[in-house]
Amino acid sequence: MAVTLSLVALFGLVLFLLLRSRSLTPGAAFTATGFGFFLASTGAAAPINEMAAALIAALPNI
Length: 62
What we know:
Layout: H1 2-20, H2 26-40, H3 45-58
């Protein structure tokens, strides 16, 4: 749970910075956010969460 909230905060910060620097339009940001919400409700959510957890677990070993 804590990993998920941290990733959400990280991606939210990146999205905010891209919008602020005008590297990303508001329409594209809305589309990316919507895609993320719809992706989370599919069968792909579990493998994506497992991959993110595995990557985070591997970081201390690098």
